[in-house]
Amino acid sequence: MAQIIDGKAFAEGLRARVATAAVGFEAKTGRKPGLAVVLVGEDPASQVYVRNKGKQTLACGMASFEHKLPADTSEEELLAVVERLNTDPAVDGILVQLPLPSHMNEQKVIATINPDKDVDGFHVVNVGRLATGLPGFVPCTPLGCVMLLKDRLGSLSGLDAVVIGRSNIVGKPMAQLLLAESCTVTVAHSRTRDLPEVVRRADIVVAAVGRPEMVKGDWLKPGATVIDVGINRVPGSEEGKTRLVGDVDFASASEVAGAITPVPGGVGPMTIAVLLRNTIVAAHRNAG
Ligand code: GUN
């Protein structure tokens, strides 16, 4: 049976290190590291994320600035809020919660964030820095996945890694990070021919496709390390109830894999912890 990779415990440890760093930053500069989160509209899942971010930011001894704007806010008004945060010396990191309402151009909004406050790592400048190996901000979820992999495996050099999914938020930055760790990287996606055959070559499988329980145990190389980024809500066994599952069929995969992240409690808790870690890095860089 596979070992379970406990992302919840790892994230708690990371937040403890962030809290210590926040105390050090305040002693040095006389202010707390600050994270601003902008939420437009009332999407229920986004409201939950933003509330958790705010709580964890405060729990780590950092300053939290929340900007909640109505769904009918104009793009111009949102851009003005972002520009104010760009020049606010109390704000080290800026996160605009996605998705934005459909009347807004997400790329234009992200492009307005100062790249040195872009703790999500979504700005093209940070995408380019990651691709060229320059210091910058890396998207939180894939960075959290690499932290879990290195904690479990040590050096990743020379390992065969398959990333399933090619999104800008997870798949593509994940592939860049694994390449930077000297893995041999394959990016698979919905048009990939014979996905099970591709996955069977991999020492490391990162599943980020958003398809419930798609990756089966008999696709895996025995002993592979499996990172499941999926969070899918599916009907539960009882009428009217739902349950969370990943993109990996945990029951069959955990019989073949060497180690695997569970859903929930695997990758999920890492994202906010890495966001706070990125904010500490931003604070130190911006305080120069
Ligand atoms: N929506 C879902 N995940 C994320 C994330 O990591 N960052 C932002 N800004 N929005 C999201």
Automatic annotation (TrEMBL):
<keyword id="KW-0554">One-carbon metabolism</keyword>
<comment type="function">
    <text>Catalyzes the oxidation of 5,10-methylenetetrahydrofolate to 5,10-methenyltetrahydrofolate and then the hydrolysis of 5,10-methenyltetrahydrofolate to 10-formyltetrahydrofolate.</text>
</comment>
<dbReference type="Pfam" id="PF00763">
    <property type="entry name" value="THF_DHG_CYH"/>
</dbReference>
<keyword id="KW-0028">Amino-acid biosynthesis</keyword>
<keyword id="KW-0560">Oxidoreductase</keyword>
<dbReference type="InterPro" id="IPR020867">
    <property type="entry name" value="THF_DH/CycHdrlase_CS"/>
</dbReference>
<feature type="domain" description="Tetrahydrofolate dehydrogenase/cyclohydrolase NAD(P)-binding">
    <location>
        <begin position="139"/>
        <end position="286"/>
    </location>
</feature>
<dbReference type="InterPro" id="IPR000672">
    <property type="entry name" value="THF_DH/CycHdrlase"/>
</dbReference>
<comment type="pathway">
    <text>One-carbon metabolism; tetrahydrofolate interconversion.</text>
</comment>
<keyword id="KW-0658">Purine biosynthesis</keyword>
<dbReference type="InterPro" id="IPR020630">
    <property type="entry name" value="THF_DH/CycHdrlase_cat_dom"/>
</dbReference>
<keyword id="KW-0511">Multifunctional enzyme</keyword>
<comment type="subunit">
    <text>Homodimer.</text>
</comment>
<comment type="similarity">
    <text>Belongs to the tetrahydrofolate dehydrogenase/cyclohydrolase family.</text>
</comment>
<keyword id="KW-0521">NADP</keyword>
<keyword id="KW-0368">Histidine biosynthesis</keyword>
<protein>
    <recommendedName>
        <fullName>Bifunctional protein FolD</fullName>
        <ecNumber>1.5.1.5</ecNumber>
        <ecNumber>3.5.4.9</ecNumber>
    </recommendedName>
</protein>
<feature type="binding site">
    <location>
        <position position="231"/>
    </location>
    <ligand>
        <name>NADP(+)</name>
    </ligand>
</feature>
<feature type="binding site">
    <location>
        <begin position="165"/>
        <end position="167"/>
    </location>
    <ligand>
        <name>NADP(+)</name>
    </ligand>
</feature>
<keyword id="KW-0486">Methionine biosynthesis</keyword>
<keyword id="KW-0378">Hydrolase</keyword>
<feature type="domain" description="Tetrahydrofolate dehydrogenase/cyclohydrolase catalytic">
    <location>
        <begin position="5"/>
        <end position="120"/>
    </location>
</feature>
<dbReference type="InterPro" id="IPR036291">
    <property type="entry name" value="NAD(P)-bd_dom_sf"/>
</dbReference>
<dbReference type="InterPro" id="IPR046346">
    <property type="entry name" value="Aminoacid_DH-like_N_sf"/>
</dbReference>
<dbReference type="InterPro" id="IPR020631">
    <property type="entry name" value="THF_DH/CycHdrlase_NAD-bd_dom"/>
</dbReference>
<dbReference type="Pfam" id="PF02882">
    <property type="entry name" value="THF_DHG_CYH_C"/>
</dbReference>
